[in-house]
Write a structure and sequence with these properties.
The chain has 99 residues and is mostly helical. Helix content is 64%, strand content 0%.
């Protein structure tokens, strides 16, 4: 997930500069340092997005645990977490049985 987000962010940053030049009707290769800058800036933002999304889901699950609710559906698959069923903080609650 991290590499693909970084790749998409990088291509988006590069494309943003290309679109900017196209809208101004100047040569697309004008100011090539901005192409490189936006490429790396887009990659950094894409990488940060993954970590921010992960932290947000973990915070939401912590709030839901405090309220006695189950975690969000498919949290483990979405974040790539690999918990054993007995390690889950929700084992022992009503409807959850340890295997």
């Amino acid at each position: 997930m991290g590499f693909s987000a970084m790749f998409v962010g990088s291509i988006s940053g590069f494309g943003m500069q290309m679109m900017n030049n196209a809208l101004q009707k100047v040569p697309l290769s004008r100011k090539p340092w901005l192409h490189v800058t936006y490429f790396f800036l887009g990659g950094y933002i894409g990488q940060k997005w993954v970590t921010l999304e992960r932290e947000l889901v973990l915070d939401i699950n912590e709030i839901r645990a405090d309220k006695g609710m189950a975690p969000l559906v498919a949290t483990d698959r979405m974040l790539g977490l690999h918990y054993r069923r007995s390690d889950s903080p929700y084992v022992g609650q009503i409807g959850n049985k340890a295997e």
